[in-house]
Amino acid sequence: MQEQHADAVLTAGEPAWAGPVPVPDLDSEGYWAALRRHELAIQRCEDCRTWIHPPLAACPRCHSFTLGFEQVSGRGEVYSFTAVNREFSPGIRPPYVVALVDLDDADVRLVTDLVDVDSAAVRIGLPVEVTFRDITADATLAMFTSRSDEVPRG
Ligand SMILES: [Zn+2]
């Protein structure tokens, strides 16, 4: 994935996005297009049904080029996480929580931000669900937050 920095559009009540902006390529366009619709869709091999993330040009299991994107529920659980309290990337201001999230209905693990949750309440196994953040007029990121029936959002 290439990265570019662009002037971000503000969503009401949210600070401007200071991080990298994704540039879709031929392999990942289906993933980013779904996010723009506020849907989470994961690449899947149409021959052997293997889930693939991040998106690739060919299936790593059977080498098929017949790949598609399937919408998933966006529900999952925290496999691991780290709470970041100092600035590692210029412009990306702490504190924030980076997590590995295992999806409930696709055999993939996503690297993501956990948002709107008290970092002290984050734990391995925490049930989470996707939330979408429009960072520019045509770029949306998938982030995760605690399920409303679990931990009060901070
Ligand atoms: Zn395959």
- Portion of residues within helices: under 10%
Radius of gyration: 16 Å
Q: What's the assembly state of these chains? A: single chain
Mean pLDDT: 89
Question: Which ligands are bound?
Answer: zinc ion
Which structural class is indicated by helix and strand composition?
A: mainly beta
What is the terminal separation in angstroms? 32 Å
Based on CA inertia axes, which overall geometry fits? globular
- With strands numbered from the N-terminus, the spatial order across the biggest sheet is 8-7-6-9-10
Proportion of beta-strand residues: 35-45%
- Which ranges are low-confidence, i.e. pLDDT below 50, for 5 or more consecutive residues? 1-11
Task: Characterize the main sheet.
Answer: 5 strands, antiparallel
The total count of strands amounts to 10
| Sequence of secondary-structure elements | EEHEEEEEEEE
Q: What is the count of DSSP helices, taking H or I runs of 4+ residues?
A: 1
